[in-house]
Amino acid sequence: MSDPAFHEVRFPTDLAFNSTGGPERQTEVVRLGSGREERNTRWAESRRRFDAGYGIRTLNDLHEVIVFFEERRGRLHGFRFRDPLDWKSCAPTATPAPTDCRIGTGDGDTRAFQLVKVYGSSSTKYTRSIAKPVAGTVRVAVDGAEKDEGADFALDAATGIVTFSSAETPAADAVIRAGFEFDVPVRFDTDRLEINLAAFEAGELPSVPLVEILP
C-alpha cells in the first residue's frame, strides 16, 4: 500500500550526483576490565544519510532545492533520492542482469516477492529490502529464464513487490532472481534551510541533510 506521506518524485539527480553520505549503523561497544571488548548492534538494518548541499553550485540550483523543499513541506513528506554510489543491483558501472540478486524460492503457490539487494556472498551477507525500484529497469528470472514484465509479472514501483501472473506462479524450489535500478526513500532531516547568500557566493556550500526512511 502506498504511503500518503511519501511523494513518488525524485530529488534532482544532477544535484544528488555530487552529494556526500552513505550507510550508517549503530553499534554498542563495551570495553571490559581485561582490555577486551564486547560489541552489539542495535539496528538490524543500516540507514543512509546524505548531504545534498555539495551538489549546489549556482543560484538556480539553490532555487531548485528551495522549491523542492517547500513542496515536501520540510520533513513532512518523503521522496526518492538516487544514491550516487549505490543505485543498482550490480556495480555502478555494470548493467543490471535478471540474475543479479536472489529474491526468493518458489513453493508452487506464492506469487509475490519483495525485491532485495544482497551485499556479499558469504554466510555473513547482508540482504537489504528495495522498496523504490525504478520503473522500466526491473528484470526478473526464474531458474535462469528471464520473464517479461506485463505478460509474466507485474511490478509495484512504490513498494518493490514483484507479482507473477497465475499462469507463471513459480514452481516449488524454483529460484527467483532480479536485477534493477533503485532509489532510496528519504526525507529532509531539517525543517529549516539555512542559506547565507554572501557565504555561498564566497564558496561556502549550504547544508541540505537527508535521512533514509526505513520500512
The structural class is mainly beta
Number of helices: 3
Radius of gyration: 20 Å
Average per-residue pLDDT, rounded, comes to: 94
Strand content: 25-35%
Q: Distance between termini? A: 12 Å
Main sheet: strand order:
1-6-16-17-5-2
Care to count the β-strands? Answer: 17
Task: Please give the largest β-sheet.
Answer: 6 strands, mixed
Shape: globular
Report the order of strands and helices: EHEEEEHEEEEEEEEEEEHE
Number of domains: 2
Helical residues, percent: 10-25%
Low-confidence stretches: none
Could you walk me through the main structural features you see in this protein, from its secondary elements to its overall organization?
This protein is mainly beta. The chain folds into two domains: 1-87 and 184-215; 88-182, Immunoglobulin-like (Sandwich). It contains three helices and 17 strands. The chain has helices spanning 13-16, 59-72, 197-201, and strands spanning 6-10, 20-24, 27-31, 37-41, 47-51, 78-81, 101-105, 112-114, 116-119, 126-129, 139-142, 145-147, 153-156, 161-164, 175-179, 184-188, 209-212. The strands form five sheets. A six-stranded mixed β-sheet has the order 1-6-16-17-5-2, with no helix packed on it. The chain has a four-stranded antiparallel β-sheet with strand order 7-15-11-12, with no helix packed on it. Strand 13 (153-156) and strand 14 (161-164) form a beta hairpin. The N and C termini lie close together (12 Å). The model has no long low-confidence stretch (mean pLDDT 94).
